[in-house]
Model the fold of this input.
Amino acid sequence: MSLSWLRQSLVDTHAHMCDPVFDGDRAAVLEKAHQAGIGAIIAVGENLTDARKNLELAQRHPILKPAAGLYPTHLDLIQAHQMADFLRRHQSRLVAIGEVGLDYWVVKEDAKKELQREILKLFIELSKELNLPLNIHSRSAGRHAISLLLENNAARVHMHAFDGKAGTALPAVEAGYFFSIPPSVVRSRQKQKLTRQLPLSCLLVESDSPVLGPTPDDRNEPANIRQSIEAIAELKNVSEEEVIIAVCENTERVYGNLEVPKMPKIEKEGE
Done:
């Protein structure tokens, strides 16, 4: 007999669709994502130029859900306050604050690290004020970012492409934070170990397009989050359907209703 099941629409929870690398074929890339079963893409930014472009692109491409943030290597309080003003003005059109966070891979000096922390605190407070989730970058700073988020009572938190150990992530999991897995999981032992050890109840999927794809030298695209789904299922020894249902539920828990359409029912042949 045949088994009927509802195919969930996926959300790519972190992609840089404003990147100029997509200017020549962005519509085709988004159509490919739609055909892959992706119903929404959270379009993050790194500065005010990106934020404005994300709003404009979202008007033309409803699959894009715009976010705005200041990349953590932009160590400028004036820019941070300008971004805060932008977020307040456009709160109703934005789905997240991001990407923001800490980056100790690039920033090495203690004084600059402290400035990063001050800027992140500003965005944590803004997240609570505007009730917008934080889309967090924490390269080589996972433990420090999580501690700062917890100390400042950040509530709606998405840790993007976390590069730390699962043990470092556990306090964040206990606090209800979420961790997204990019397609690079197929080639990253660290991402594979993290995926095995974190509970499915805290996992999301992301592309981080145009980077962190399944192959290091090719442009990444949102459609590749299907490879994240396959990898999570294999690493956790569960079905892809179970992973899809979980990450869709998790995405709604942190981002709310993104008005993502359900895919139509399809028939799977059974015995």
The domain at 2-269 is CATH 3.20.20.140 (TIM Barrel). The two ends are 5 Å apart (CA to CA). The CA atoms of residues 127 and 197 lie 28 Å apart. The first helix runs from residue 26 to 35.
